[in-house]
Give the backbone structure.
Amino acid sequence: MFSKSFEVCRFQFLNFMLTFINHTSHLKSFSYFCENFISMDFNAEDANIFEDFSPVNSEDRQKVYIETYGCQMNVNDSEVVASILTANGYAITSNINDTEVILINTCSIRENAETRVFGRLDVFSQIKKSKPSLLVGVIGCMAERLKEQLIEEKKVVDIVVGPDAYRELPVLIRAAENGQKGINVLLSREETYADISPVRLDKNGVSAFVSIMRGCNNMCTYCVVPYTRGVERSRDPKSIVKEVKELVDAGYREVTLLGQNVNSFKWQETQGMIKETISFADLLEMVALVDPRLRVRFSTSHPKDLSNDVLHTMAMYENICNHIHLPVQSGSSRMLKLMNRKYTREDYLGRIAAIREIIPDCSISTDVIAGFCTETELDHDQTISLMQEVGYDFAYMFKYSERPNTKAANKLEDDVPEDVKTRRLTEIIELQGKLSEISKRRDIGKSFEVLVEGESKKSKEHYYGRTTHNKVVVFPRENHKIGDFVFVKITDCTPATLMGISVKE
């Protein structure tokens, strides 16, 4: 756990550095590609509002409200932030009207995610009018990318903190209380927060995210992540296993190992004259062995790095879920080269063939971009044909949107007309809708072990959970409890959900 206090000298030094950074730092603004993100199975735009949390009586503690948008990594980052803050005397609240500090955490992957955050900042500005002492902070990737704009244009923002500077939040909050701008967006080559046990503030207490690495080295031409999260750094596997064991002891039944590219995980240790390298396949096995009843998932895999060793490890352990998210982005080798994806259409299909051979019952999801620079009808048709050949269980689909300072924006022409992008995206969505329905209808009549995650949004008389294939199932709650493993026979389906009844194993 992070140290519970900062030394006075460190506080003074950092305040000096903050002043220096405020006047001298001019980091480049980078961006990503996507507007109009569409998922067949979940809405990643929904905010994650953490529940009230404090390890001791919170009456004397300054309250912090955290609002999170974006990917699983962002949710995990907010849990790290909550841990750092609670260890330093703050309490986490879910009541925005009863807080001294508001922190909003979001990614920079999509333009509309940032637009939504700017809208929330306008709301916070209205709250601040009636409560002038309120501090407002933007943390995470968006803070990294838009520091100058946030400070110059959004006067409501007092604190701007990038994803590698969360440890400094207590100091930065105190700086803001003293009338300074609390800013730190410096990236690190070492920071992994390995020593911090995230405060689990989710509502179900069943599934948890565990970050195994940070950053990315792949430099896809459309992607901002290497610039907002820095270079790849893998966590000490011992700290990962320790965190997973703590989750098991706390009653969690499932973990998802997170990284921008989990397959590039690599940890090297030297013991005497022997240098040991731990790969992602090794780590996956170590986590699976923590508890045979603990479900293990991971995200995301890069096709160029998905090894047969990982597939064989998945096949070896029943508690490693039979689902792989393998983003393709395009079915055209020409497009993939322009995107700097470092694989061809044939390479990708070779990985799919390996999955089918080693794990025949594995579900596969993907990401697809429509209308990337110079994309022709032939390129688009190749994407359509690849989707048909693979038969994805579900997909996340995007329309390319050029944003400043990415390599694609600097080197390539965004020359596909907007109406053509929209039409191609529509065709991709319609096809995936059919593929998803085919996938779900194949499951009718079969029985699956489902981890109960919560109450159905449509009916209090039903629970929902997921199969090992990451498919959502709704079924009568009967006498089951959240966190139970229940065998469910599938009786019907909708485009997004399986429906069934519980049966004996």
